[in-house]
Amino acid sequence: MKNRAMAALCAVLMTATACGGAPVYMTESELNERASELAAAPVETAAGTDALTDAASDRMSATAAEKATPAPTTEATTAPTTEPTTEPTTEETTEPTTEETTEPTTEAAEWDMPTDGTSSILNGCLVVNQGTDHARAIELFGGNHSVSSRYAGVLDQYQQALGDGVQVWCMVVPTSQAFYTPEEFASKNGDQRAEYENVAASLTAAKPVPVYDALYAHRGEATYSRTDYHWQPLGAYYAAEQFAKVAGVPYAKLSTYEAVEREGYVGAFAAVNKIGGLSPETFTYYKPANLDSVECTYYNVDFTNARSGKMFHEDNSIGASYTVFIGTDECIFEADVADAPNDRVLVIMKDSYGNALVPFLTQSFSKIYLTDFRYFQGSLVNFCQNVGATDVLFALSSVAVTTSNKVDQAGGHF
To answer: pTM for the complete prediction?
Structure first.
C-alpha cells in the first residue's frame, strides 16, 4: 500500500500549491523525496502499516479546502484565565428545552449491504459497488494492539494529572471500513472493533465511550460518506448520543435540529485518491435549536488572539462540505451556551472527526472547547484547569489511535 501514501503525498503538494501556500507537513523537496521512496518501495498489506495509517490520518488536514477557510481574524485579545471549577456534579441535570431523546439504539438494524457492481483495490483504497450509483470508497485499516494499548495509557496519565475534579473520556471513532467492507476483503484489514475493545480494556482511570455498536446499528443510514474519509454528521449525532448517555448529560432529539442539505457532494477520495465513478451524494448537517444562544470564539492554537466567529461556515464550496464545522483544524474553538442545562465544561481533544460532534453537544454542556491534538500548543492539563473543565473527551479515529506517532503527539501535551 505504499503507492497509496505516495498518491496522498502528491495530492497534498498539488492542493497546497493550488492555494498559493506551502504543504502543511513537508516542504516541496521533502514531499518529492518521500514520494520517490514510496514509489520504489514494495507493496505491503494493510495490517500493521504505520506509513499507511499515518498518511491517512493527516491527509484531510492538508487539503486546499481547509486551508482556504481560516478562522475569523480580528484584533487580538488576551486568553481567558478563569479558575478551575469544582468537581463535576453527578446529580441528574435539567433537561434542555427540546424534547427528551429516547434510549440510544445499539441493536443491529436489519440491513443488507449492497453487493451489486464490482469491488477492487484502486489507488490504495477499497472501492465497492463499482459501476453503480452507490459506489463507495473505503480507507483501508491496519490496526496495532500495542499502539492502541499505549494510547489508553496516555489517557490514563491525563486523568491522573487532572485529578478527581475532571473526568477524561475516550471515544475511538470507527472509520467506514468497519461497517462496509465486503467479507472477501476483510483479511486485508485490521479489526476496528477489536482495537476499540483493546483500548477500553486497557483503560484504568479514563472512561470509554462505546460508539461502535450504535454506529453499526445505523449503518444502513447515511452515517458515513461514500466519497470522503469522514463520517456524515448523522454518524456524529449517534456517537455524541452515546457520549451524553455515559456522561449523564441531557441530549436533544434529532427532530429538534434544522437539517440543511448540500446536494452534489463529492469528497476527498475523488480529489486526493483520484478515484472516479463516485456518484455525488447529499451532505446533511444539523443546526441545534439553541444556536442563537451560543456565543462562538476562536483562538490561536496557543490560546491567544480571541476573536468572535460562527459555528457553521456555510459559504464553503460543496466539495469542502465537511469543513462547514468550525472551518479549520488549526484553532481552539469555544462555544459558550446561554441558559445551559448545567455548569459542566467540556474540552474536546480531537482529530478531524471530532469537529462534527460540537453542534450535537451545545444542549448538553455550558461551554465546549474544541482543539486538535496535531496543532494544539501548550499544556492540556493547564488549559483544562484555566477554562474550568469538568469533562475532557478524546475523540480520535481508530486510524489515529493505532498509529505510533499520532499517539506520541496526543501524549505530548502534559
So the answer is: 0.78
